[in-house]
Specification:
Layout lengths: L17 H4 L1 E5 L1 H4 L10 H6 L1 H7 L1 E6 L3 E2 L11 E5 L6 H13 L3 E4 L3
Parallel strand pairs: 1-2, 2-5
Antiparallel strand pairs: 3-4
């Protein structure tokens, strides 16, 4: 036998937002993956690992600052929010990373400080 209980006080559960149900993976680019052998992680290095992030079930990548900076505070002392710091790559590298993430259904969150 099956017992079903209904309550007139029950309210339908609201739909949850993507950020309430997704695994968010923070990446500090400087130490994540170096693609050019200079010892500093970069955007191309992150792009090389997108399949791994997808395998983990990551729904969004939270990227620590990649903007142009004098690097006295490891990128948190941003001097331009409209330019990628050359140690991490170029705007074309960023565009390529963003496109590759979106193709896998992974969102990108930029850390604005």
């Amino acid at each position: 036998s099956i017992v079903v209980i209904f309550s007139y006080r029950s309210k339908p559960r609201p739909e949850l937002e993507w950020w309430q149900t997704s695994a968010i993976y923070q990446i500090y680019p400087r130490s994540f993956q170096d693609s050019n052998g200079d010892g500093i992680g970069d955007l191309k290095g992150i792009e090389r690992r997108i399949d791994y992030l997808e395998y983990l079930g990551v729904g969004a990548v939270w990227l620590s600052p990649i903007f142009r900076s004098p690097m006295r505070d490891f990128g948190y002392d941003v001097s331009s929010f409209t330019d990628i710091d050359p140690i991490f790559g170029t705007m074309a590298d960023f565009d390529s990373l963003l496109k590759a993430l979106h193709e896998k259904g992974i969102k990108l969150i930029l850390d604005f400080v």
